Amino acid sequence: MRMRGLEGWALTPFGPERALLQDLGWWKGKWSEGEGMNSRWGGWFEDVQTDVGEKVDEEAVAPYLPHLVFPSLPTEIDLPRHLLPDPHALPPTKKGGDTAMEEDDDGEAPPEEEEEQAQAEEREKLKVWLGSLKNGEEGQEKIELGRFESRRLDEFLPRKPGFIFNAGGAVMGLDWCPLPHPPSPVEYLALTTISSHSASISRTINPGPSLIQIWSLDMTTPSDFAIETDKEEGGEGMKMVMGLCIEEGDAWEVKWCPRGGSGEEDAMQVDGEENGRLGILAGAFADGSVSLFAVPDPKKAGAEEGKVLYLKAKPILKLTLPDTTCDSIAWASHETIAAGCNNGYIAIWDVGSALRSGATITRPLQYFPTHTASIRSLTFLRTPPLHRSLDGTLNTDQEPTYIASAGHDGSTTLIDLADTTAPVVITHDRGFIGAIAWSPHTGCIVTHDADAAVRLISIKAKDFAATRAVVKLTGVVQNLATSDHHPFVASASADGACTLSNAARTSKKKAYKGHYFHRVFRLDFNRLLGEYRMIDNLHVESTVGIDSTLRPPSKATAKNDYAAITGAWAPEINVSRVCWHPSLNRACLLASGTVSGLVRVDWVEGGAPGS
């Protein structure tokens, strides 16, 4: 069945097709033999209570709000000398020499304070050029996105469904909330940011306040994500509805528990009442811990229309290790989570038992070395293990037994959890490897090498560890995302591009010559003006150089190719995170976050609609 599906996917190289979507993802307890999806899959841990924290007003929430790492301002090093500020100039003082902040007689803030507040708000805005480029003439429109402000893409790009918004800081964590069937009228996206370009991955003693953002996407109007959109009948669109104020510091990565929240009718009822929860959100935080939060439903928590609800949140479970920090996480199932540590070790916890027992401290089930440096990404190979009866049947009620990881030592390793003393180094590069994923449709591991080429790694016995290139990018790969419903790989890279490539076409390399990739968008930055430009509707490109059966480009072509001579990119345009929606009905929904703070939500069905 999988091979027949790959044949069909190989003929659609430009984007996911809804007619071919198929759920090949396996999770422990999700499926019942002969009955399909388990009705209790969408249920909640019945012993876990969601404690809605106290509300935080707008004045007290200021320490938790994110700040732009790279404000949308001109870079001083690129400005002409006559525009540079005078370093010897003294700050202005009030009359009489008193520099203390005072209030006017009527109790209002002085003009100096209002001016500083206006300047601070201006620094949090992003200036972005959006629109189409035709015949070399710029037909784009410049907009200013304030913190937590969103706009529709089809306002500037005809036949372009999607949204763009300002998250307020460099996006490090990004994940869709997995709501089971039937489709939810509102989808939720969790994201976290960092507010310093010099943030360290080592343990922070005093991490400080931070914010977990919960954004909602109204899906009640189908035309919102049709190629021909109807603006008059559009829904509420993308908006931030809730912020969780935490003290664990910035999060390097966040992942929703694959089970939890609202499901079918028998899974929604707990003691006769609706649970009113979205799910359990895990994250690797700056204090070195893996913390789990029970996220309430914003509507049930008292969110008001048109306002952001800020709540103080405390973790329901905090997982820590001595003398190291957790930098990456991955769920094996709704009861087991793994963390990649700064010292090259992997820790695995049974969080299901801890949540049911109410324990606040739990030791890891396994703790073993795999790398000689920090582990930046890890993923479980979500395939059911063989039954202990050794009759060839699969045990769908057990945890997966293989985990793959990538780290700063340049190694990609595969570990059998039944024997953690012998990790297998699949590939090794002279550079750090920062992303790895599992593709159920191809049955391969997806990672990248030091030359910014995204690769498939086979785990079959006949060609174990054989690699095939999917796409070669022009910037360092920052993140990879795969889907349970189609074989397309989304890549985030330092060249400012979010790229789609078909892994099924690569896996059938001998049958289909030529590999294609499509950039969903590309981000540019003007250092003199401090403005961003987002380029859409790019042509589908073919990567001839990664296919040995095709003739390489001539020297003249390679000489004029900007990608062949460009080795460094501005940090402002870095695309840091990508993620596919985990639901079958929303499998074409792709979210991508950048270091600049811009976040895109695109519907990429069938490739790039538009001119």
UniProtKB/TrEMBL annotation:
<dbReference type="GO" id="GO:0005634">
    <property type="term" value="C:nucleus"/>
</dbReference>
<dbReference type="GO" id="GO:0006383">
    <property type="term" value="P:transcription by RNA polymerase III"/>
</dbReference>
<dbReference type="InterPro" id="IPR015943">
    <property type="entry name" value="WD40/YVTN_repeat-like_dom_sf"/>
</dbReference>
<dbReference type="InterPro" id="IPR036322">
    <property type="entry name" value="WD40_repeat_dom_sf"/>
</dbReference>
<dbReference type="GO" id="GO:0000127">
    <property type="term" value="C:transcription factor TFIIIC complex"/>
</dbReference>
<dbReference type="InterPro" id="IPR001680">
    <property type="entry name" value="WD40_rpt"/>
</dbReference>
<dbReference type="InterPro" id="IPR052416">
    <property type="entry name" value="GTF3C_component"/>
</dbReference>
<keyword id="KW-0539">Nucleus</keyword>
<protein>
    <submittedName>
        <fullName>WD40-repeat-containing domain protein</fullName>
    </submittedName>
</protein>
<feature type="region of interest" description="Disordered">
    <location>
        <begin position="81"/>
        <end position="122"/>
    </location>
</feature>
<feature type="compositionally biased region" description="Acidic residues">
    <location>
        <begin position="100"/>
        <end position="119"/>
    </location>
</feature>
<keyword id="KW-0804">Transcription</keyword>
